[in-house]
Model the fold of this input.
Amino acid sequence: MSAPDDLASAVRDEPALREKEPPKPAGLGPAGWLRWAWRTLTSMRTALILLFLFALGSVPGSIYPQRGVDPAQVAQYFKDHPALAKWLDRFWLFDVFSSPWFAAIYLLLFISLAGCVFPRAVTHFKEIRRRPPAAPRNLLRLPHSAAFEGDLTLERAAAVLRRGRFRVVTGDGWVAAEKGYLRETGNLLFHVALLALLFAIGAGGLYGYRGNVLVVEGDGFSNAVAAYDRFMPGSRVTAESLEPFSFTLKDFRASYVAGGEKQGQPLDYLAKLTVQDSPTSRPRDVDLKVNDPLDVNGTLTYLIGHGYAPTFRVTDGKGQVAYDGPVPCLADDQATYTSECVIKVPDAQPTQLGFLVRFLPTTVPNGDAWVSVFPGAVNPTVQIFPFAGDLGLKSGQPQSVYQLDTTHLKPLGTMSAQPTPLKVGETKELADGAGKIQFTGVKEWISLQITYDPGREPALLAAAAAVIGLVLSLTVRRRRLWVRVKDGMVTVGGLTRTEGGGAAFADEFTRIVTTLRGGPAEEPRAAGTAESGPGTPGPAEPDKEAGSAGHAAPDAPTGNAAPGDRPDEE
Amino acid sequence: MPAQVNESLATLSDQLILVTVLLYLAAMICYALDLAFGRARTAVAVRRRELVGAGGPALPESETGEPGPEPAAWAARAGTIGVVLTWLGWAANLGGILTRGIAVDRWPWANMYEFVVAICFAAVTAFLALLTRQPIRFLGAFVTVTAALGLGFAVLFLHVQAGPVMPALHSYWIAIHVTAAIVASGLFILAGVCAILYLIRKDERPSVLPGKEGLERIAHRAIVISFPIWTFAVIAGAMWADRAWGRYWGWDPKEVWAFITWVVYAAYLHARATAGWRGKAAMIISLVAFGCLLFNLVGVNIFIPGLHSYADVP
Ligand code: HEM
Done:
């Protein structure tokens, strides 16, 4: 292998130089166009533009509410801006991250990535096994060089360099050494890891599922599709693939800051569960907390919310108990947990009954009204607004359990905005002999998210590999060094093939030269800088002039390497 | 997690942060004096010197340049005093963070105020650490003024009483994820300052600042160090989300903007490697990325509701 070739190759894998506008096909026919399109797609400039589009495309996803994140907010947006929302929806702006145009951007980016990385990987694989190139004729014209007289043998030079973990080749009167292959390896690892990450995420989406469920104290849950309030399976999930575990919520406790400026701020949540990993296994006790999910063979259960579920007994006009149990309420106000609930009693006779309930966990009178002042249930009361008539359940339209459709209901008795609150155990008689309602107790509910995602661990591995690859590709420098011994005269030359690596390499080079000379005895007089004084224009000069645009590469042959850098162009 | 707060320590912390702001401002004035009356250089001088030192140290060490008019001796002394004041401010800043952490018995970066204070601290730390190895004193005025403004903003608009945090933040992940985000942000600030100076700097004019090339190199180095740290911070955040919310990535606004920031910094690194995008274009991209970082830090918390419960601003 001849020296000019080596320099050409040294230069070839510098991206700055490789990166040329692909020549436009001039009447090349379809094959030519295809090749041009492929080269354009896999060019760095296209990657750059796609990266920008990728970033830009995510912006609307943070501005508009997203169905995948918070469907209720999307519904609210439709209510508030019906005309605009319809248009935004046409462009998938409420589903940005699952929209076709977003997918187009990242698929193009990843095709470009694959098209760029795999050829590079092949080149790199060949390069790794290639020996360092032979020494150029005039080592003193390299960016880092030194000359001294001494009795250095080639064997000792090779040994010194090997000890420095260079890959070393000896030839006729010279030693060539190279180091820093890990840079390109790291770069490839990083980019391949990104591809792997995408696959892991995709696989997790296909084979995993996610669901939400609300459980009241004393109740249980068993993992089956029908038990969920909301179930979002991947397209490859079947009912049998759900892990058959079950649990009962024995108790839930929330603690709050009792006084001071932060009064009412939550301190800790704890849900006590009895879990059965499978229908035949023994029950075990589990403390479920935020940041500490329950893990049953990779299916994870998370505590994500909580609220109050006061219990009521409704007796209808005929004296039958028509309702007896808890009613989950939604908090209106996180600071006091003043909550609203709805009781629907379709079985009540002679007419159906409905109640709006305001739950006050810590009730204090406030003028003519009552308010809650603390989220904990210190003095729980309920204010009840009764209705009678048709609940509208037969219309077939799905109804929210948190809303009362009052179109066919009429208030029972005189409606006041602040009915006298009931304490636990107290009963309210309904007007018109419609029956009575008793506030029997206070329970709490928790909301859970249950997730199975087989892509989690592969995604984590890929991400870890990406970080390792990134650190390697950003910190390792590729460098070459040659030593020539002739008639008692030793010349050493070196270059780094990494932009910006000049400063650090200068130090390393000086150290190596010092070692080659036989220890740190003298000042490394001849090393690097001193050798190319103002009188003898250094090899970097043509480059500096070429860099008239204000940019000069710090280490000449690696950056805008000019042909003048070839040590032996003669 | 105990609910009690050591009030006297919390007050001391607030006072230390005020002292920090004053010290940074005083340091900034000293640096400014040094910049205004110190030794000016032109890029021409720099370039000549670099030719002599081809292959030599590539950082602005070589850029002592030709002396302009003889600078006043007190100007250089002002610069030295600036460095001393910065160290004092740094110590007060550290003290403010530690006392707050001890006062509430948790990691002291669980709300916006604490987070911004910690980032300013990280930026000054990055500057001082680099200063021990590189002649980048010229950056002092810009870093201290940025830190003083950041702290002032935090004290005036973000301050919340020391106290316990939401249950979602009870996790060792706060130590891992937030610390990485703070360190990376501090370095990105340093790079951002250099990038702005790069765009202002005219190489033909004599100036106490290093040439464009030196500025670009410092910015690049800072980004090269902080990009992997930011990558790690994002991944650690995903792992925490996996523990806390049941999914490692859910396109919460904070996540979206962390991702955007990451992609644009990656674009900057690609731009550096692509002919035609180097230099000014790359610097502008790095500033766009820096803008995304700042927006994520401040804008997202204020304008966009999300899951990140530390984000509550008063
Ligand atoms: C998801 C998208 C991508 C991300 C996040 C990404 C990230 C990065 C990062 C951080 C570096 C810096 C490493 C360094 O400076 O050495 C880098 C380098 C590189 N990337 Fe990418 N990349 C992406 C896509 C691509 C694509 C599509 C291509 C091919 C066209 C590509 C080609 C390269 C090349 C050639 C380098 C080496 C540059 C150098 O040696 O300085 N990347 N990439």
